Amino acid sequence: MLLTLASERRVLFVGGKGGVGKTSVASALALARARNGGRVLLVSTDPAHNLGHIWDMKLSDAAARVFTASNGYVDAVEIDPQATIERHFKAVGATMMKLLPEQLHRSAKQHLELAKTAPGSHESAVLERIAELMDQSVDTYDLVLFDTAPSGHTLHLLTLPEKLTGWTESLLASRSRSERFAAAARGIVGGEDPQAVAESELRRTLIARRDRFARMRTTITDDTATGFVIVTLAEKMPVAESLDIVSQLRELGIDVASLVINRRSPADAGAFLAERRKGEDACLHVLRERLDSVPMTELPLLVRDMTGADALEELAALLKAG
Asked: For residues 41 and 145, is the Cβ–Cβ distance under 8 A?
């Protein structure tokens, strides 16, 4: 069921409460899709990256091949917000230096250094990189799979494209007024204005940014292209948080495509686990009553640690059978 979903959609987000096994499930799904002939880009947006540990490889902000099948593969990225911030402010700084007189360059550079650490810079950078990867991967990969941070961080991040699009629209409107005044002034005094060239460059940058966020917003709310997979445990707190995530995703217009109930206790492995399973059944009953339209996949509690190719192969086989 999950593998069918991974074959039908171009973008999947895997999220849920912290500690429920999101990265393991996302990695196993990526591996299963690659074994099924898919070219997969697996992206970690979690600041506390765990993707490299799962694949037993050192990963970075650039795509690296972590798995190759006979006719498919998995490339993996751990988003580095600081690298994105540095690239973004380097471009902004270059434009500012063209716009400002030389005597203001020093104070402008100091202002930019402070802005790098302003509240929201980290999230904005992560979102910028997600939008960039989605744009760049459309023609290269069959599936882009995002292994996300715990739910609060991810849900906040998914509200940002619309906000940032609106904010960029305001900036563009402001630049348009400024450019009209500048054009009128040039008409009076005549001659070419070097600042007008920089203004046009800034405008192009803002338009490209606005359009990128608008495309991202369109893609993540298209239920034929994008889906959200919630990973949870059959325990009270994860179930309650999963119900809250579903409610918020639906308000954002994002399709909740699947639920994965991870680490289900066996019913036939002793009294302790049998009793634990009864408690899990009660939690799942609540989940099924509230979300009966969302497909659910149950994964058993596994003995081994979820690191390395062999462990992921085992989990991928269970996903394929589910």
From this structure: yes
